[in-house]
Amino acid sequence: xxxxxxxIGLGGISHRFAKVLKTAKDVExxxxxSREQSRSEEFARQFGAKKAFxxxxxxxxxxxxxxxxxxxxxxxxxxxxxxxxxxxxAVLCEKPFVTTRxxxxxxxxxxxxxxxLLMEAMWTRCIPAYQKAREWVQTGRIGEVKLxxxxxxxxxxxxxxxxxxxxKLAGGxxxxxxxxxxxxxxxxxxxxxxxxxxxxxxxxxxVDAAAAIAMRFANGAxxxxxxxxxxxxxRTAVIYGTAGSIIVDECVGPQKCELFDxxxxxxxxxxxxxxxxxxxxxxxxxxxxxxxxxxxxxIPLQDTIDCAGIFDELxxxxxxx
Length: 321
Fold this sequence. Notes:
The protein is an alpha/beta fold.
């Protein structure tokens, strides 16, 4: 069966999603919505959607839509995802899912009560290279994991009106890019940290422009992570164990991972390129819907809740309300 998608919020990330959706099998784009009818109609023409609306609710209520992709800015994720779930409509919500643990717990509880599919669009976890690295860890190929390093930083000029720096739009590097190294790490280890510490550089608008994060896990592993808008850094992630290490080419959208022994000799290499890694999350969420499942095994809802809890802890340390 074809799984029918609706998209609410037609910004850059939704353009990317719709472009990749056109290349996926057994799915279709049924309806799209923004606050401007002309914009919705142009988006629909560009990506082949059957319907275009100037109301998000019209997409949510459309009986011909199976899954809503929520591509709105971070500040609207809670409100619109809740509206979808109240209408028993499956949701793939762009990251970060929400900005507080309380909101995450409420939405997960609602999804479970209504037996409705809910998934955070942490697409990196659906990618084969990430899955291979996780498999190597789980099967003990590098012994016990002791340290993970991962970074996602890029340089952009400060513009207070940008969504990246506007606190009213839930701006900040933690929400925009920090979520990736955090959920990379918790996914590899399969648990939430027991301790989180961080230091941040704040922008004039009051949001975090950059951050360095340290996490400790119950199994003894440590993580050293960073995110930010002020410098360009490699996005390589390294997983160090007692019997070797794994280098993943990127903590966001990896295509390659390599397994090394303690002496630095490469023992195995995995490489699977894709034109755009969004294809894997589209295929995954569509298959979940076809199978009648309400939760992803790759991106469990508890992981999404735990990540929001990490946001709470770090922002509290930084004095960000």
